[in-house]
Amino acid sequence: MNKTPGATLRVRNLSKNYGDGPVLDRLSFEVPAGETLAVIGPSGCGKSTLLLLLANLETPSTGTVLHGESPLPVPGAGSGDTAVILQDYGLFPWKTVEDNLTLPLRLRGAPTAERRERGAAMLAELGLAGLERRYPAQLSGGQRQRVAIGRALITEPDVLLMDEPFSSLDALTRERLQRVVLDLWRRRRPTCVLVTHNVEEAVFLGRHILALGGKPARQRLWLENPCFGETDCRKESRRFSLMRQVRAALAAREDADSETGSGSGPEGSGGGRTASRAGNDTPRQDMEEDAPCAG
Questions:
Q1: Rounded distance between C-alpha atoms, residue 277 and residue 257, angstroms
Q2: Nearest to 161 by CA among 4, 2, 7
Q3: Which residues, other chains included, contact 189 with Cβ-Cβ below 8 Å and sequence gap of 6+?
Q4: C-alpha angle 65/68/73, rounded to 5°?
Q5: 216 cis-preceded (ω within 30 degrees of 0)
Q6: 165 pLDDT exceeds 80?
Q7: Half-sphere exposure in the Cβ direction for 195 (13 Å, CA)
Q8: Rounded (5°) CA angle 54-58-64
Q9: 38 vs 26, 137, 240, 281, CA distance in Å?
Q10: pLDDT at position 168
Q11: What pLDDT is attached to residue 43?
Q12: Cα–Cα distance between 265 and 263 in angstroms, integer?
């Protein structure tokens, strides 16, 4: 299956304030149609808030999100629909795998025969054929996440948003599902935004990488990723160079924040690319070692 790429996402001067101070401050970026963006930053820095804004589930305090040339519609509204994959799967425990998977089709009024046909095709594609009558509690964590991925993609959305979908899985299962998502993306080509705090995951799945941080969260780095889409890139030295660059940008900015007592800075106000030192920093092993920021 090869689908026409989804819609371009354009973010312009986007800020969010919940009343006790801004969480996101003047973000501007663009994700070309059918490409992927990985958003990375420490826990609590506003990544999930950004995802909710992109899904039109939150209203920005200032700025706009455009789906193509128009404001992003409510998810499920016509051809510009948006799907979201959550980190806790979001499956209904009282529904079977088949019913969970095909729920979006049922909500759109698809007839039973169509739901079963498309559900069976998706289960086969996900390697879950024969499990349609099981319940979520009877599946492994990786299998449950595959069902959640299939449910998000079964309506062929133009935009796919993923909120740390692999964070609760073991390392080997996580890597397998990263490859599953990459394969599904190649066949369908939705415009995809992945939120993660894992540097390796961002470098593997993001054609573009956006690093956030500070109080409020601003852009630390925008990076074009030449390793994206290469399934054996995990073994290449340039991948490790990219990972060092991302980690160094986050660490350098965090050091500056701690010295000034503020998360703001002259380069943190939107779409400009932030320079980072790449070669001499000790790479961080896990983003969760970073101090959390507001949001």
A1: 16
A2: 7
A3: 2, 3, 4, 5, 6, 34
A4: 55
A5: yes
A6: yes
A7: 23
A8: 55
A9: 18, 30, 16, 22
A10: 77
A11: 78
A12: 7
Q: How far is CA 32 from CA 8, 10, 121, 189, 213, in A?
A: 5, 8, 29, 11, 23
Q: Which residues contact 109 (CB under 8 A, 6 or more apart)?
A: none
- The DSSP call for residue 1 is -
Q: What is the dihedral of CA 143, 179, 74, 67, to 10 degrees?
A: 180
Strand ordering across the sheet containing 36-40? 82-85, 159-163, 191-196, 36-40, 208-213, 218-224
Alpha helices in the chain (DSSP H): 47-54, 97-107, 112-125, 141-153, 171-188, 199-205, 237-260
Distances (CA, A) of 245 to 97, 149, 197, 282, 293: 41, 30, 15, 11, 20
The answer to pTM > 0.90 is: no
C-beta neighbour count of 55 within 10 angstroms: 19
Record the tokens describing residue 25, joined without a space.
């401050």
Query: Given its phi and psi angles, is residue 46 left (phi above 0), alpha (psi -120 to 50 degrees) or beta?
Result: left
165-195 per-residue burial string, b: 16 or more CB within 10 A, e: under 16: bbbebeeebbbbbbebbbebbeebbbbbbbb
Total residues found in the chain within this entry: 295
Q: Whose structure tokens read 């990985």?
A: 38
The confidence band for 257, taking pLDDT boundaries of 50, 70 and 90, is: low
What residue has token string 């000790």? 282
